[in-house]
Write a structure and sequence with these properties.
InterPro entries: SRFR1-like (IPR044650), TPR-like_helical_dom_sf (IPR011990), TPR_rpt (IPR019734). Pfam families: TPR_16, TPR_8. The chain is an all-alpha fold. Among the domains are: about 100 residues, Alpha Horseshoe (Serine Threonine Protein Phosphatase 5, Tetratricopeptide repeat); about 50 residues, no CATH class. About 75% of the residues lie in helices and about 0% in strands. The mean pLDDT is about 95.
Length: about 350
């Protein structure tokens, strides 16, 4: 309050106002801080740090259009700011401007954002179907003197690219190699567990996820993954439900966890509860795989018109369309859907 009063008393003191603005950022008072930086920007329109601060503050408050404008203005003024390129790339990636995002990520040459920028660039290149190019770029980032956390990031990125290309065997071998170096790293264990499930190596999936949970008892993603795997691939349904309920207690509004909760209740024969949780999941996240699950429960419950409606929506959505297509095909074989 005292510094705020001093700023009000000395409105032309830019040094004092800058101190106040930075203090507000530390206190996470982002909206108020933005107001102070806007005042400073009028006084110093070409200042690199003020333009950067405004760009980052607008990102913090989810005002991406304004954030993008200030970061672009900073770069247009000729500043070679690595952080600006990185965050501009992040905004462009979130808005589907993938080529522009890649261009900005590739302009990050040094500093703490270099590795993440290049990993993101490679991931977008892989998404465009250029798997080998993405893998080559990721391999070029490897360095025998690299710190272990950075090595792990690269292993995870390569594994993600391989899995996306359905080269699950290669991803699994990669994670095995990584875990020989870092045997208790929970991110690697989690990644290998999900890959092992795709290869029907359910013992590995269960073992790895339980290892993650042993190290991180409140890891909601691992609890949910283990619970869903048990619900979907085994008859250990009570055990599966208990894991998913633990995850739901930690993240009660997470759509993936709500989907798992609905699915385990369906497998337990409790259709009313299944529809309740799957509907909540679908309302929270319009996703093809959730649509497949909700549609199946509605169909089996006799609500066939609602099931068809959900499936039609699912066909227009992002997500795992394979699950949706397989679900409709399987039920069609049992009884004509259309």
């Amino acid at each position: 309050q005292s510094i705020a009063a001093a700023v009000e008393a000395r409105p032309k003191d830019t040094h004092l106002r800058l101190q106040y603005a930075r203090m507000l950022v530390q206190m996470k008072e982002f909206k108020v801080a933005t107001g102070q930086f806007l005042i400073l920007q009028k006084e110093m329109p070409n200042d690199e740090n003020i333009l950067l601060s405004l760009g980052l503050l607008f990102i913090e408050t989810a005002e991406y259009h304004q954030g993008k404008q200030y970061l672009q203005e900073l770069l247009n003024k000729g500043y070679k700011n690595q952080q600006a390129h990185y965050y501009l790339g992040r905004i462009q990636q979130s808005q589907g401007e993938y080529m522009a995002a890649i261009a900005n990520y590739e302009r990050v040459h040094t500093g703490e954002y270099l590795l993440d920028a290049r990993i993101r660039s490679a991931s977008l290149i892989a998404d465009s179907g250029q798997t080998e190019e993405a893998l080559t770029r990721l391999e070029s980032l490897s360095d025998k003197n690299q710190a272990e956390p950075d090595q792990i990031k690269l292993y995870l990125a390569k594994g993600q690219v391989l899995n996306a290309a359905r080269r699950n065997d290669e991803a699994y071998r990669l994670y095995n190699s990584a875990l020989q170096r870092s045997p208790e790293n929970t991110d690697l264990l989690y990644a290998r567990a999900l890959t092992a499930e795709k290869l029907d190596l359910l013992e590995v999936t269960e073992s790895d996820l339980k290892m993650v949970i042993m190290h991180e008892p409140e890891n909601a993603s691992a609890l949910n993954a283990l619970g869903y795997t048990l619900a979907d691939r085994t008859e250990r349904l009570t055990e599966a439900r208990d894991y998913i309920l633990k995850a739901a207690k930690l993240l009660p509004d997470d759509p993936a966890i709500l989907d798992s909760l609905g699915w385990v209740y369906y497998r337990l024969g409790q259709h009313k509860d299944a529809i309740k949780w799957l509907s909540k999941a679908f309302n929270a996240l319009q996703d093809a795989e959730i649509a497949a699950h909700l549609g199946e429960v509605l169909w089996v419950d006799g609500q066939t018109d609602k099931a068809r409606s959900i499936w039609r929506k699912g066909e227009r959505l992002e997500g795992n369309k394979t699950v949706l297509e397989n679900t409709m095909r399987r039920l069609k074989e049992q009884q004509s859907i259309k």
